[in-house]
Design brief:
Layout lengths: L31 H5 L4 E7 L3 H12 L6 E7 L6 H7 L6 E4 L5 H9 L6 E4 L5 E2 L3 H9 L4 E9 L5 E5 L5 H6 L11 E4 H6 L11 H12 L3 E12 L5 H4 L1 H18 L3 H24 L6 H13 L2 H4 L2 H11 L3 H10 L1
Parallel strand pairs: 1-2, 1-4, 2-3, 6-9
Antiparallel strand pairs: 4-8, 5-9, 6-7, 6-8
């Protein structure tokens, strides 16, 4: 695909300036020989009725100045003006379609099936890349299985949080290790290895990216880390992260259930088993502590007995604290009175 320059694209909407409206990234290649030196990057944008943000997404990808870009848009049959926006940029798209689909995961898989690049990711239609993000990704890949950079979560009310990718290991992510930081737009993978590990599981509507990441890193763990900000991830009332938080949590649980038996490696399956037992205990423990039909001593004894059935997971400071609170409900206030005396 020929990389467009700012002057070739349609003019930005009135009042829009800065990146990616009136600014562009430097051109990374001007000759055929220079172009051939860059790996092809394939990007899919799944979209459905995101016309308010879609044009910013498209321009942020097209204005990367990247010489080997495949850009595919899979629209789910939008009725909000998105089609008109896509058609404005059609000359610079590798492929696009607008038709009813089975959701975001299905749309990404449809795009992935048309990709041929060495490097792959999807950028949602309400997010956008930063200048020269693709150049920095390509320069950092080397022989690694992926490149991980920083993503900024933001909203229109001033919220701004950088998430710096680090310690992205399948086992740590599954176990919920707080040292691991992951964000989908910041993790760029090898397309052939995405396919090799099974692609995107369309049975998940909310956690399919996490499922893919865990399977991919189980098999292909070598990552290069970039400190650079690669993308901005928009939070708004219609984004899944905001509007479907509980559904996402439920999907995360289903991912772990799946990986416990169908994980690609034995360590992945063991980590998933440990996490499931932990999550199940967290759900079970309140049933003991809040069962006011039983005396406190009985509840404490039931917790201790249940914890002994799986001490590796259940015998924790959190569990012991619950037992202590049942046995000594006034203990904290008593200690506070002593401290204040």
């Amino acid at each position: 695909m020929v990389t467009p320059r700012l002057t070739e694209l349609p003019p930005p909407p009135s009042g829009c300036s800065g990146w990616p409206w009136t600014e562009e990234s430097p051109v990374l290649a001007t000759t055929a020989q220079e172009t051939a030196a860059w790996p092809t990057i394939s990007i899919v944008t799944p979209s459905f009725n995101q016309g308010a943000f879609l044009e910013e997404t498209i321009r942020s990808i097209l204005l990367q100045g990247y010489p080997q870009l495949e850009y595919i848009i899979i629209d789910g049959g939008s009725t909000d003006g998105s089609i008109g926006i896509i058609k404005k940029y059609e000359p610079w798209l590798t492929y696009w379609v607008s038709e009813r689909d089975e959701g975001q995961a299905h749309a990404i898989n449809k795009g992935l099936a048309r990709c041929t690049g060495a490097i792959f990711n999807w950028i949602n239609s309400d997010d956008y890349l930063l200048p020269d993000a693709l150049g920095r990704i390509a320069r950092s890949f080397g022989d690694a299985d992926g490149v991980a950079g920083t993503v900024i979560n933001f909203d229109d009310h001033g919220y701004w949080e950088p998430l710096v990718s680090k310690e992205l290991e399948a086992g740590k992510l599954i176990r919920g290790n707080q040292s691991s930081v992951y964000h989908q737009p910041g993790l760029w993978l090898r397309r052939d290895k995405v396919i090799a590990c099974g692609g995107i599981d369309e049975s998940f509507q909310y956690a399919f990216d996490w499922d893919l990441t865990l399977r991919y890193l189980s098999l292909f763990p070598r990552l290069n880390y970039l400190p650079d900000v690669l993308a901005h991830f928009r939070l708004h009332s219609r984004s899944k992260t905001v509007s479907a938080h509980q559904h996402m949590i439920d999907d995360f649980y289903r991912v772990i259930v799946k990986l416990r038996t169908a994980g690609p490696t034995a360590p992945t399956r063991r980590a998933s088993d440990w996490r499931l037992r932990t999550l199940d205990w967290w759900k079970l423990l309140p049933q003991f502590t809040e069962d006011t039909r039983r005396p406190r001593l009985t509840r404490a004894a039931r917790i201790a007995l249940a914890a002994c059935r799986d001490p590796q997971v259940r015998m924790t400071r959190f569990t012991l604290g619950a037992i202590r609170c049942l046995l000594f409900p006034n203990g904290r206030r008593h200690h506070q009175r002593e401290a204040n005396a």
